[in-house]
Amino acid sequence: MTGMDFHEFIRNGNGWELLSEETKFANPYVQVRATRMRTPTRPDGCDWTVVHRRGACVVVPVTENGDFLLVRQERVPIRSTIWEFPAGQIDVNAKHDEQIIRATALRELREESGYDLAPGGELISLGFFFPSCGFTDEHSHLFLARPVIPSRDGQSPDEHEAITGCRAFSPGEFRAMIAGGEIRDANTLSAYARMCALGFI
């Protein structure tokens, strides 16, 4: 695998050029590569460690009465259990295939929260963002799902996940959790910011 085929929309051009790369570690979830990159201000190149990771989907579930659904999930790297929007990796290199990305969003909604999009409901794309572009090319697609209703199948989280709860929060409660630092993951904060910027809240 070359640096050009992991995420096809990240490519050379406009003063950027991948000069060399070496994979230092790889598993089904991430690849760690030592790269040398020419940049617009560093024509001789610079060394950078880049973590490649598959794209992901983040879903903002909104109930019929306007509450936000959050799941409470253990996050090993920060040694904490936090409230966040449902999210998960896209199973294949979707190459920005909208159908696959939307299907992933609905799957993660159902598996993590135990809710489905209601008949006639909307799954609205809010674009995508880079959660931590200083070291990784991971990108998360944001979606607003409204309204959502309990799924007949209930929750079925991935075997590697530890989701300890799911509940609805009013918009006021949600804002207070952000202001108080209780919500602190990039996916949830970015989804909230994007919804505000687009006028959804």
Task: Describe what this molecule looks like in 3D.
This protein has 201 residues and is of the alpha+beta class. It has 2 domains: 1-53, no CATH class; 56-197, Nucleoside Triphosphate Pyrophosphohydrolase. The chain is 18% helix and 43% strand. It has 3 helices and 10 strands; from the N terminus they run βββββββαβββαα. The protein has helices at residues 98-113, 171-179, 186-197, and strands at residues 17-26, 30-39, 42-53, 56-61, 68-75, 80-84, 87-89, 115-129, 140-150, 163-169. Strands 7-4-9-8 form a 4-stranded mixed sheet, with helices on both faces. It has a 3-stranded antiparallel sheet with strand order 1-2-3, with no helix packed on it. β1 and β2 (30-39) form a beta hairpin. The longest helix has 16 residues, at 98-113. The relative contact order is 0.18. The model is unreliable at 1-5 (pLDDT under 50).
